[in-house]
Specification:
The complex is a heterodimer.
Chain A: H1 3-24, H2 46-51, H3 56-60, E1 83-84, E2 87-88, H4 93-105, E3 110-114, H5 117-120, H6 144-151, E4 161-165, H7 170-183, E5 192-195, H8 200-206, H9 213-230, E6 237-240, H10 242-246, H11 251-271, H12 276-279, E7 283-289, H13 293-314, E8 327-331, H14 343-358, E9 362-364, H15 377-392, H16 407-430, H17 433-438, H18 441-459, H19 487-501, H20 504-519, H21 525-533, H22 538-549
Parallel strand pairs in A: 1-9, 2-3, 3-4, 4-5, 6-7, 7-8, 8-9
Chain B: E1 6-11, H1 19-30, E2 34-37, H2 44-53, E3 58-63, H3 68-81, E4 88-93, H4 97-105, E5 111-112, H5 118-129
Parallel strand pairs in B: 1-2, 1-3, 3-4, 4-5
Helix pairs in contact in B: 1-5, 2-3
Classes of the chains: A alpha/beta, B alpha/beta.
Chain lengths: ~550, ~140
């Protein structure tokens, strides 16, 4: 059938069966709109591929080959399933350690470490601002001794990847981990350590910055440079898209704003004289898996194609590995409901499905009780099994990129790419991501999108099952996880003990060196390594840096 | 004509997720309530000082980090100390039912948990603070 014939048949369909249906009945909605605000047509056909000038070789190609739309590995899940790496962390190092061991026993092949808020913003557990926060949302790490507890007895031969959710204090946590691996004789080639280390997104959506943007980016770049040169197997930066989405963005903004931040980091490393082909193969991207199955899968595919083209055309990358977008995917947080929590299992399954159809390399699934608290063991087991069922029973991992060629999905992939590129141009014209952040552009866009989403839920336009439709009288008391309240006291007494046994003079010496290197713009990692080895605490090191760099104060009116 | 209701909104503790509180701020503003949003990393001292300085009628606090039992009681205490217990406190976030009961016993008016609509919050604010702004006859 030629395009002309399809066009005629399409007309016949619209004027015939569709018109007849619409005379007697109507569609469920006046408008069908995607999460990125693209209008969704009644049907997609070869006419749509024609309209987007779809060219198989140019737009898709083959997996493992530029432009990588279909996947970064030639055989994808026919070779290996993705790394299954649930987020875990709470209490003291040994509490998180217990959960890591449980998860490895349950069959996951990596883990994602969450730290508590004081650790993430450089306060020791005995700091006044840490009160009530110690060990609540992640593991409390005050000193290298806590880092040792985190990894005690972990069977590293079973671990493919460790993802660490640390940003403002990434130099300190990295140093602690390096010391622990050295001390325990753990070969750093055996597994991939991935650091989040994306400080820019903190200013716009996550809020766990410490210092102002410029010195923070310098620290982040120090970490990247240090890892590139010393730990080539590690990923020292994970460009964050998922947090932007969590804050309310559309899928297009999720990708666009994340890439805008990535451009800043890449430029900074290149300014230090490192080659793009030395950096890019070590970058990772953390992307979300949300509701809207086809748009999410298309988002992943578009991200790979955009990234490949960006690396090649904007940054002149030559190494095939530089063009590959290594995607770590996490299913969404905000779609989870406190109402009828079992429904969340279905939501997470669909979101995870999108990630698998999208072709991510590492995945974590959220848990049915996470609208209420960090997950129980039971809930996290269901989340891991979700991944196992999809991997082993669903059939979708039997071939590579099964959605390719779908008229709908290829159109969406194209639309997302176009819209992202438009945003990137806009942000470039603004002066780049730092400028956009300082002027509140991202923050306002996010607040606007979040508000629109909320309005749609409250008007019923967007159905949230159990919340604005199919509600029940909620009475089930779900057993939710509670962090041991003794954690804070325990950490404080450990700090006191540590301070009484360590060599205070040595600590002072190493902290002086941190200060000097911070002031003299030397790479901060060697001095921080010495500091953690002398048992300086995360708070003490961060305080030195606060003294040198100052603290960031947000402009709270960007909404 | 009665004066506008003045509400201070804030994040408290170290958590930085401000999507929810910003949505609430906008919804209250759209409903004609005057909102002063002071942002992230606010301590109980900073919150009570700002509330008194801005002469607000009420304080709305977002806590998602689990630190609510350290934060709310301290704010209630400080307001009492500074003779400002007429400023009423409410909040929302990730706060389990047993803690909500305890907080209410301490004088927190209401805690809004996941799934609450902004319409409910607007309604609550209007009903709670309406009388304070009735014209004096």
């Amino acid at each position: 059938m030629s395009i002309k014939e399809i066009k005629l048949a399409h007309e016949k369909w619209l004027k015939g069966p569709v018109a007849e249906y619409l005379r007697k009945s109507k569609e469920r909605k006046d408008e069908f709109i995607s999460n990125s605000r693209f209008p969704i047509k009644k049907i997609y056909t070869p006419l749509d591929l024609e309209e987007i000038k779809f060219d198989y070789n140019r737009d898709l190609g083959f997996p493992g080959m530029y432009p990588l739309t279909r996947g970064i590995d030639p055989l994808m899940y026919r070779g290996n399933f993705w790394v299954m790496a649930q987020i875990a962390g709470y209490g003291s190092g040994e509490d998180a350690n217990e959960r890591f061991k449980y998860l490895l026993e349950q069959g996951q092949s990596g883990f994602t470490i969450e730290f508590d808020l004081p650790t993430q913003v450089g306060y020791d557990s005995d700091h006044p601002l840490a009160q009530g926060e110690v060990g609540k949302v992640g593991a409390a790490i005050d000193s290298v001794l806590d880092a040792e507890r985190l990894f005690e007895g972990i069977p590293f031969e079973k671990v493919r990847q460790i993802y660490t959710i640390i940003n403002a204090t990434s130099p300190i946590i990295l140093a602690m981990f390096i010391h622990v691996f050295e001390k325990k004789g753990i070969s750093t080639d055996q597994f991939r350590l991935t650091l989040q280390n994306d400080i820019l997104k903190e200013y716009i959506c996550r809020g766990l910055y410490v210092f102002p943007p410029e010195p923070s980016i310098r620290l982040s770049t120090d970490v990247m440079e240090y890892c590139i040169l010393n730990y080539p197997n590690w990923n020292p930066l994970s460009i964050c898209m998922v947090h932007i989405r969590t804050a309310g963005s559309t899928p297009v903004q999720e990708v666009a704003f994340g890439i805008a931040n990535a451009i800043v980091y890449i430029e900074r490393i290149l300014e230090r004289g490192l080659d793009i082909d030395l950096l890019a193969p070590k970058l990772s991207i953390i992307i979300g898996g949300y509701m809207g199955l086809f748009e999410e899968a298309a988002k992943f595919r578009a991200t790979r194609r955009i990234w490949a083209r960006l690396m090649k055309e904007r940054f002149g990358a030559k190494d095939a590995k530089s063009m590959m977008a290594r995607l770590s995917a996490f299913t969404g947080g905000y779609p989870l409901t406190a109402q009828q929590p079992a429904n969340n299992i279905v939501r997470v399954t669909l979101e995870h499905l999108a990630c698998v159809l999208g072709g991510a390399q590492l995945m974590g699934t959220t848990c049915y009780d996470e609208a209420l608290a960090i997950p129980t063991e039971e809930a996290v087991q269901v989340a891991i099994r979700t991944q196992h069922v999809v991997a082993e029973e669903s059939g979708i991992t039997e071939t590579v990129d099964p959605l390719a060629g779908s008229y709908f999905v290829e159109t969406l992939t194209h639309q997302i790419e176009e819209a992202v590129l438009e945003y990137l141009q806009l942000i470039d014209e603004m002066g780049g991501a730092i400028k956009a952040t300082e002027e509140g552009y991202f923050q306002r866009e996010l607040a606007k999108a979040a508000y629109e989403y909320q309005k749609e839920v409250e008007s019923g336009e967007k159905v949230v099952v159990g919340v604005n439709k199919y509600q029940v009288e909620e009475d089930a008391r779900l057993r939710i996880f509670q962090v041991d309240p003794k954690v804070e006291k325990r950490q404080i007494s450990r700090l006191n003990e540590l301070k009484s046994v360590r060599d205070t003079k040595e600590v002072e010496k190493t902290l002086q060196k941190v200060r000097r290197d911070a002031e003299e713009e030397k790479n901060i990692m060697p001095s921080i390594l010495d500091a953690v080895r002398s048992y300086a605490t995360i708070g003490e090191i961060s305080d030195v840096l606060r003294d040198v760099f100052g603290e960031h104060k947000e402009e709270s009116n960007y909404m | 004509m009665s004066a506008k209701i003045r509400i201070l909104l804030t994040k408290a503790g170290l958590d930085g997720h401000d999507r929810g509180i910003k949505v609430v701020a906008r919804a209250l503003r759209d409903a004609g309530i005057e909102v002063i949003y002071i942002g992230r990393r606010q301590t109980p001292e900073m919150i009570t000082n700002a509330a008194i300085q801005e002469s607000v009628d009420g304080i709305g606090i977002s806590v998602l980090s689990g630190a609510h039992m350290s934060i709310f009681p301290k704010i209630a205490e400080l307001l009492k100390e500074k003779d400002a217990a007429n400023i009423l406190v409410f909040g929302g976030g990730i706060i389990p039912p047993q803690d909500i009961l305890e907080l209410k016993n301490l004088g927190v008016l209401e805690i809004f948990t996941p799934g609450t609509s902004t319409a409910v919050i607007v309604d609550f604010v209007k009903k709670t603070f309406l009388h304070q702004n009735d014209p004096v006859l």
